[in-house]
Amino acid sequence: MSIPRKSMSLTAGVLAGTTLVVTVCGVGGAAASQPDDAKGRNTSAPVLPARFTQQKIQWTACGADVTPKAVPGAECGWVKVPVDYAAPDGKTVKLRVSRLRAKDHSRRLGSLLFNPGGPGEGGAADVADGNWQAGKQARARYDLVGFDPRGIAGSEQIKCPDGVAQQPDYPPRTEAQARKAFADATKRGQACQRASGAVLAHMDSVSVARDLDVLRTVLGDAKLNYTGFSYGTFLGQQYMKLFPDKVGRMVLDSVVNPAADMQQVARRDVKTSDDAMRRYAHHLVARGDDRLGATTGEILRRITGFAKKLERKPLRGVDGEKFTDATLSMYLNTAVTAEETWKPLTKALVSALHGDGAAFERFDKETADGSGGGKPTPQEEQAAEDESASMPAVLCLDSPSAPKSPKEMLDTADAFAKQSPLFGRSFAWQMIDCATWPVAPTGAAEPIKATGAAPVLLVSYTDDKQTPLANAQAVHRQLANSSLLVRKGHGHAAYASENPSTCTDRAVDRYLVGGKLPDKVANCPR
After folding, report:
1. Would you call the peptide bond into 119 cis, given omega within 30 degrees of 0 as the criterion?
2. pLDDT, tens digit (0-9, with 9 covering 90-100), for 99-143
3. How far apart are CA 252 and CA 238, in angstroms?
């Protein structure tokens, strides 16, 4: 699912797209809000004018601007929300929403809102084109509702005409190099601010959670029934904190820990990549492939030594492009997480170690040919560009922990490199977009208890590189009332997935339809 890219920012390196994977979807923090009162109500919630809470959605057939492949019965419409909830009489933003009515309408339970993750991804198309349909029982009893969050996709997509800051192809080693990288990143962020307008300063997840409550009200639901994947679990937790008394049946699948800040998540991802590298090396030894070394330790030392050599003297590809230690890090991070790429990865590494600068160009072709994928459509390319712009707009407001100066970034990168010579420095420099973002962060990394909220269901794979099981276990401990369903195996987003699990889908549907939670910690087999 993930493919290498030449340069990547931390916020562009998400989980749910075709990128170098750093789980920014695990970045904690959200705009500060006042603590809940003794009854679980959030005392800082603004009182909205009736023009928001009493508006009616004009449902019509979904057009090609939402999806060219809308399923029969898909409906779309708009909901207005304030840009700034502290000033609800000011500017507004229109949210695009989609709906598929419950199949068993006579026994309809209400609306089930869906967020696919990101941040930066819209959800309106996923519901309208049937890409996400929930489990069989839930699909029968709920209207499925997708929405594009503010500033994303159809909801007045923000614009970054110069693109967002990317991880430098060659991570800076000197202050002069770092200052140059910061100046370029700052210029790009300022261009985003000029082109996007007022909404850029209000892309934080707390504002989006307040939007969810407007949607709930306008849809006529007394409680919010919700399924969120990855970043969508973080959004769900923000809603639980703000509106615990409005929580209905909530499924948080592939869980983000709001108590972890950006640097903590990046360090965890560095360790995850090192662990995957070790599994890859162990696999070679177990099958008797000694082309890179006879032992796991020897293989890792040889590849690490090769990376240090590339730092001093990069290889050159067919077109003269440099193949640096950062390029190697990117390919390794992507390739070692998918066992189907291990064979071509070994082939490429052996050739590169012998001085072949084009080895990984052939790796690209070999893995692309084997994936069944083709050239992306113009619409897909635009969606990827929009998502890369939207992601830092959310994350950089939510998490305050990115380095703030060239010197601090260099020191952070050095510390990361000590933790992992192969991955640390590149991962650290992926934070450059948030380090230079033109809007100050409003969030804080902190656990959410959501006292007074109805019980919610957490779901996780045992092996999820993007949102590890440890995240779900931590959030299970933090929340006042939750159950954890663990699906054995490797993947991301376990419920109603392309690779379905009858056990998982039935357990989640029993909760969504009947309110029956599994045991505090339950397991589904591989």
Report:
1. yes
2. 999 999 999 999 999 999 999 999 999 999 999 999 999 999 999
3. 12
